[in-house]
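Reply to dn_fold:

You asked what the input looked like. This is it:
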Amino acid sequence: MSSSETNKSAVRACFEEASRGNFDALEAILSPDYVVHPDGAQGVDGLVAMVEGYRNAFADLSVTIEHQFTEGDNVATRYTIRGRHEGELFGVAPTGRDVEFSGLTISRCREGKIEEEWELVDSLGLLQQIGALPEMAGA
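and this is what came back:
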């Protein structure tokens, strides 16, 4: 397997295992100096805390990887997150609404482990769906 394929597999496994709550698997996937931006979460514990926030907020959380691309040691992953808002999120009480929002993560890997990630998530769309922000006209 090429290094690009190895890196894509590591990133895919990270998304799949984290979304399932199988956090023990992350030790083999993440580098000890792992960091995600802009949150600044560091190491396995930092990623677990970040993911648990979403898992606690969304019943039946699922993550679907839509596309992955590689260039050198970098993997770009576009994904969709779905779930029912049944726990507090960003100070917003549960609404019971089904939500769907997208994200893009650029992962830098070395020797098949993820060292650093940059994440962009459609937080505006998510906040609108849970009623924390008004819907935009024409949206």
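The mean pLDDT is 94.
Hope that clears it up.
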